[in-house]
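User: quick one, sequence for these tokens?
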């Protein structure tokens, strides 16, 4: 049977417990504010208002994947960076990215199956053999886990690459619809926790480390767009594209963190400004209704 949006909300509650009034996914996180300025190359190639070249205000949220608001900051899980751009005409553009270059499954059904296999047994512990059996039967659920096993969690929210993962389209100045994916490249460089730091089990350092870093000036990411070729997957977020020609579309800048500015934002990744459109990736499609349910619940204290 096709997975339904509310199936995810229900299985998150089974895995992570019920936490009223907060996000059902990426429950732990911190708001930040700043802006985005497109590069001259992006302005020259695209008419999209997002790439006009003038500074556009942005609301951000950094987060840890999963529905546990007390998830430890050394956890081997994806980190998230969501951004909402407010264009000059008031329209919005959202992105919501992960530190893994691929997602945990190729479609909503396999992601749901993996989550259902991860629900703790009666003893409160996940059944590792069951999860392994699901991964063996569904190879698309392996690459993200392999990436997480091979890469330490980020030392700071400012020292991770964040991947858009899905395919999107963008109309260029010639009217051609270009197939793209993107990632955010940290100007501070990529740095993970050392084995020693992980072993220290410090559960809460990411918010403080970001704030401390911002005291020295803005944190910046380059928005790197990759141009897909005919063979590159449009609908499978568990498969990474090979290295492709890229364009640096501009700079995301973060100036402040720790206020409440993102609490009432739904970073629905299908909210796109003029010139952009979403692919038929079924995982991307599922995100809008699932986020809407989570948003409605948390705004109403559920
Ligand atoms: C079927 C697949 C997915 C489901 C069911 C799902 C579910 C959710 C839910 C329920 C939330 C909380 C929304 C809110 O209350 O505002 C959330 C947040 C988030 N998700 Fe997903 N998600 C999925 C796939 C993805 C993918 C593919 C990515 C990245 C490419 C992603 C990145 C994020 C991020 C960064 C947040 C936090 C946004 C924020 O800070 O408000 N998710 N997800």
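Assistant:
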């Amino acid at each position: 049977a096709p997975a339904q949006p509310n199936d995810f909300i229900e299985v998150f509650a089974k895995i992570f417990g019920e936490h009223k009034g907060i996000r059902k996914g990426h429950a732990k996180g911190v708001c930040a504010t700043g802006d985005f300025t497109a590069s001259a190359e992006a302005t020259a190639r695209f008419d999209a208002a997002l790439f006009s070249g003038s500074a556009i205000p942005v609301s951000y949220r950094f987060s840890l994947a999963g529905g546990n608001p007390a998830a430890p900051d050394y956890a081997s899980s994806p980190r998230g960076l969501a951004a909402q751009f407010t264009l000059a005409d008031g329209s919005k553009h959202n992105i919501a990215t992960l530190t893994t270059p691929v997602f945990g499954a190729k479609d909503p059904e396999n992601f749901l199956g993996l989550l259902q296999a991860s629900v703790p047994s009666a003893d409160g512990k996940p059944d590792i053999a069951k999860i392994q059996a699901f991964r063996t039967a569904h190879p698309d659920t392996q690459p993200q886990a392999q990436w997480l096993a091979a890469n330490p969690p980020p030392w700071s929210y400012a020292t991770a690459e964040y991947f858009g993962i899905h395919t999107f389209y963008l109309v260029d100045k010639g009217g051609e619809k270009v197939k793209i994916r993107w990632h955010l490249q940290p100007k501070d460089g990529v740095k993970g926790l050392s084995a020693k730091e992980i072993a220290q089990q410090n559960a809460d350092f990411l918010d403080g480390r970001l704030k401390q870093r911002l005291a020295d000036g803005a944190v910046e990411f380059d928005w790197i767009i990759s141009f897909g070729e005919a063979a590159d997957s449009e609908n499978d977020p568990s498969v990474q594209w090979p290295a492709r020609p890229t364009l640096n579309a501009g700079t995301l800048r973060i100036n402040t963190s720790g206020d409440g500015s993102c609490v009432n934002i739904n970073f629905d990744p299908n909210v796109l400004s003029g010139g952009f459109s979403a692919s038929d990736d079924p995982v991307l499609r599922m995100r809008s209704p699932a986020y809407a349910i989570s948003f409605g619940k948390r705004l109403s204290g559920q």
